[in-house]
């Protein structure tokens, strides 16, 4: 697969550089050495064993191609890795290597070690998005624009409240992810069938659990209640948290992409040398950052479905379900980090075209204000006549290119001369002014800012 051309451009290059095969092997080695440290502290192996293992293995050059080839025979990377590690140790240490562990302990814990710094990077990017969104919300809390439902013009809102929804979505997802990262991702240690077989000693039936707890502390992970070999709730929670962030990022990108359309022109993505260029049309400035975000997020949604379908795993070890999680989980983290890198730049440099927003509010000749106009007229004309007159005035304003208030006043005089005097010109202008019909937009921005800053 031409990964550098097709897959990796959607991923964070920084995250990719920290998630190589060598990094996963280093994470597996960290697990095994921390296990020896913990067992030594518990008196389960002789003093000095862990340090000697560390001396012999930390500088050892593991053969990545041999480990990769061994996966086809054993079904996971831990089996050839453990064999290679044992072969590199002196004979007197071999018996203490991987003691009481199983391949799932190594793989699951190594994945948690590998993903822990990715969670920190994701949190930092989401905080960067929040910092970029706050001044946008404040600057445009009263900037009127078209609110659209079912892709059609509906009623006015402000651009500030639109940004507030983007920011709230991202921040809610950030807090969900942070709730998993704060205590640490869970270590995995249960042995062959999840009950620490071989570590029991008379009077120390809880030794396996003590080793699990100490192992978690040494690796900077959390200690689960029990080993979770086929209880995949930790993976389910992590994958769906990734997907929640992806959904919020994709919402931002989708809205921006729609608003950049030539006919709308309400925002533009940040400019840059060659950014958004077309291979054949020199005039185009494509919303490429939005495309990259959406492309990454769509892949994450697919990966999430794989993980969700692998949640129920048989008996004490998954048969294919466990194996199916690895790639989608890691790829989701790398894709999400790439999407958020783009989202942060997008929010930091987004160009807002208020004049285009005003133009689009008037594109229907004021029909977007037909609802408040009808409400003004209803007490005197009744609902049906008021609605008809409001719509007819909007159509006349659109065809003639005039002001909605002028068309409305003219129709009132010609159709309802006896009532026209009851409507002040100022009232007609206010009822047809989008900037005066923004509902709770401004208050919503203030409320959102208060929540984001708490």
TrEMBL record:
<protein>
    <submittedName>
        <fullName>3-carboxy-cis,cis-muconate cycloisomerase</fullName>
        <ecNumber>5.5.1.2</ecNumber>
    </submittedName>
</protein>
<dbReference type="InterPro" id="IPR008948">
    <property type="entry name" value="L-Aspartase-like"/>
</dbReference>
<dbReference type="InterPro" id="IPR022761">
    <property type="entry name" value="Fumarate_lyase_N"/>
</dbReference>
<comment type="similarity">
    <text>Belongs to the class-II fumarase/aspartase family.</text>
</comment>
<keyword id="KW-0413">Isomerase</keyword>
<dbReference type="InterPro" id="IPR000362">
    <property type="entry name" value="Fumarate_lyase_fam"/>
</dbReference>
<feature type="domain" description="Adenylosuccinate lyase C-terminal">
    <location>
        <begin position="365"/>
        <end position="449"/>
    </location>
</feature>
<dbReference type="GO" id="GO:0047472">
    <property type="term" value="F:3-carboxy-cis,cis-muconate cycloisomerase activity"/>
</dbReference>
<dbReference type="Pfam" id="PF00206">
    <property type="entry name" value="Lyase_1"/>
</dbReference>
<dbReference type="InterPro" id="IPR019468">
    <property type="entry name" value="AdenyloSucc_lyase_C"/>
</dbReference>
């Amino acid at each position: 697969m031409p990964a550098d051309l097709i897959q990796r451009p959607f991923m964070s290059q920084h995250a990719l550089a920290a998630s190589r095969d060598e990094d996963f092997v280093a994470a597996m080695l960290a697990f095994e050495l921390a296990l020896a440290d913990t067992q030594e502290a518990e008196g389960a192996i002789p003093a000095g064993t862990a340090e000697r293992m560390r001396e012999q293995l930390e500088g050892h050059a593991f053969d990545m191609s041999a480990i990769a080839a061994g996966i086809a025979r054993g079904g996971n990377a831990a089996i050839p890795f453990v064999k290679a590690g044992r072969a590199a140790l002196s004979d007197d240490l071999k018996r203490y290597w991987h003691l009481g562990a199983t391949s799932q302990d190594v793989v699951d814990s190594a994945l948690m070690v590998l993903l822990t710094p990715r969670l920190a990077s994701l949190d930092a990017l989401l905080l960067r998005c929040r910092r970029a969104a706050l001044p946008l919300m404040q600057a445009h809390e009263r900037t009127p624009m078209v609110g659209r439902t079912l892709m059609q013009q509906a009623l006015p809102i402000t651009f500030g409240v639109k940004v507030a929804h983007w920011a709230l979505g991202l921040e809610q997802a950030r807090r969900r992810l942070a709730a998993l990262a704060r205590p640490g991702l869970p270590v995995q240690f249960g042995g062959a069938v999840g009950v620490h077989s071989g570590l029991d000693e008379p009077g120390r039936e809880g030794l396996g659990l003590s080793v699990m707890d100490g192992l978690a502390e040494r690796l900077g992970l959390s200690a689960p209640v029990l080993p979770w070999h086929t209880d995949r709730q930790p993976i389910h929670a992590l994958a769906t948290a990734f997907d929640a962030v992806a959904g919020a990022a994709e919402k931002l990108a989708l809205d921006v992409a729609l608003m950049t359309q030539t006919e709308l022109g309400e925002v533009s993505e940040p400019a840059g040398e060659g950014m958004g260029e077309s291979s054949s049309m020199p005039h185009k400035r494509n919303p490429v950052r939005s495309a990259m975000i959406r492309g990454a997020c769509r892949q994450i949604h697919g990966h999430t479905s794989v993980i969700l379908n692998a949640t129920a795993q048989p008996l004490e070890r998954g048969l294919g379900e466990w194996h199916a999680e690895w790639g989608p989980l890691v790829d989701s983290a790398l894709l999400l980090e790439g999407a958020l890198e783009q989202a942060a730049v997008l929010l930091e440099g987004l160009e807002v075209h208020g004049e285009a927003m005003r133009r689009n509010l008037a594109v229907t000749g004021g029909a977007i204000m037909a609802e408040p106009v009808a409400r003004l007229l209803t007490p005197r004309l009744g609902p049906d006549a008021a609605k008809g007159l409001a719509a007819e005035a909007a159509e006349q304003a659109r065809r003639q290119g005039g002001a909605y208030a002028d068309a409305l006043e003219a129709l009132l005089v010609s159709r309802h001369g006896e009532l026209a005097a009851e409507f002040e010109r100022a009232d007609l202008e206010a009822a047809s002014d989008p900037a005066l019909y923004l509902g709770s937009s401004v208050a919503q921005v203030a409320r959102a800012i208060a929540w984001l800053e708490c």
